[in-house]
Amino acid sequence: MTVSFATAPPLSASRVMAVMEESQDDIFIIDRRNIVEYMNPPAYRALGFSAAPVGRPLRNCFSSSAWPEIEQDINHARRAQRPVYRERSIPFAQRERWMGAWLTPIDDDNGERTSVMGIARDITQRHELAQLLAEQHNLFEALITASPIGILLLNGASDWMCELSNPVARQMAGATWIDGAGLDDAWPALAQAVTPILAAACRSDGSSTADVDVSSRHFSVTAVRLRLPGRPGNRVLLLVTDVTDRRALEQQLLHADKMDAIGRLAGGIAHDFNNLLTPILGYTDLVSSTLAADDARRRDLEEVATAARSATALTRQLLTFSRKQVTKPSAIDLNDVIRSLHGIVRRTIGEDISVIMDLSPTLHRTVADRNQIEQVVMNLCVNARDAMPLGGTLTISTANTALTHASCGMLGSVPPGEYATLTVSDSGTGMPPEVQAHIFEPFFTTKGPGKGTGLGLSIVHGIVKQAGGCISLTTAQGRGTSFAMYFPRTDADVAVSRDEAARPVPRANGGETVLVVEDNEGLRRLAERLLRNGGYRTIAAQNAGEALELARSFSGKIDLLLSDVVMPDVDGVTLANQLTRQRPTMRVLFMSGYTGADVARHTVLPHHAALLQKPFTRDSLLCALRTVLDAAPREGAANS
If you count Cβ atoms within 10 Å of the first and of the last residue's Cβ in the chain, which end, N or C, has fewer? Predict the structure, then answer.
């Protein structure tokens, strides 16, 4: 079958005119001088005319600011010999609008291009929509770029090709650009780990999350299945978060919680031991004082007392580990501490180990308990000796160190600033990784049975932390070990300390009356007996209620209250406050098996309060008692 098409007859001028008049587009024709030859109703109404401005220059129809660009577009259309499309923002009578216009040159009967016809359409809405889309795209780009987590858009239909990635993802992958590459090529280590996660997300048509380890880093990965209109294929949004630092902090927190729990247990055990050791030491003193100097039983009692004092030292170690030991921090020079220990260190480690001291002459001062720092140095030196059974070199050095935010993050929770660094190094056997992971844990030891308590390094760790510092370990098997301790700098002057042990024991004058309040019957009887042997008169109560009743019924003067701090019902501080209101001249001496820090958990001791730490001996009790009784009264108060 043959199909033929008839040639349409040309439109008449009147028909063309009718089409232009009814058109919704703005149509105009201008001559070579840009004089308006024709303008349809939509065009002249938009320009604010009631009729077509035929015969008038087109420039008079627009503002002076808009015309130069319009004229430039018209001239370009004349020269181009073809239709030209332009988009412009043009101010009209009602408002400014974006117009898209085709400018077409028109030849006259002689073939000369004398006129230009323009067909313009309002594209304001389209332009505003395009602008909104552009702004949203820019916002999307900014969000993706600024995101702290890695973002990848993967196409499962193309071997998980990466269609989009942000800078964090590229940095994690160690590549400058991965878009367009398959995940196996772009990030092979991650691809192997996340393939099951991507498959699970596609199967569930939802999301799948898992933690993966990639190249010694820990990542939390979430895969989200996406369905994009008009884009077939299994597309998955992969969100990758580097949780290595968070995992390390969680481990530190768990370790800190464990250490705190063990510390509380150690503090409680130490308190109970102190209550048990007090009567052992006290009654040993009492019995020993009744025996002749050459009596064999006296020597036996001295052995009992020595064992009890060793147990006392162990409880102090437990309290130091738990950071609840009563300390006396002051400004010290670490160099002075180390020099004073040189002789005992030399004798302790043996002749087959050489000692090198490299001390900074301009070392910062720090605030710490001098006795505890001595304990730190000796503990580390003893450990170094044990790590060098065939001899070697022990180096003790000091230096000034400025810690930055980055270095503080590696060392632990200490602020940036200036620190005095004390380092103890040895050339011994070193430690394997499995030992390093537990080295500061209490009761962890690599020594044989009976050769160590496992508290040495945990005590060192506790002392350094208590001083506001931190400690780092550097070691490798066969390459020795180095402990570096960082103590915060202070500008305070070094205090001239006075050895407590050198103070003379005040004479036990006796004769005064002491009210003893202690809920432990054995300790109460011991205190009474030691005081009576020292020439004091005593009255005793097992709790605060009994003590208040005794004080009311006792007609004589009570010179001093000797009270336990932590008791059932009413604590010693509350009792002392009530009694001193009745008897303003009465002095107060507190005693406790808890440390100062633990006491604070139960009650608040006045800053001027005298505290006798359990376990105490006869001499320490009488000395403390006499010191309080002989002290000058405080201004505005009668009790100590």
Answer: N
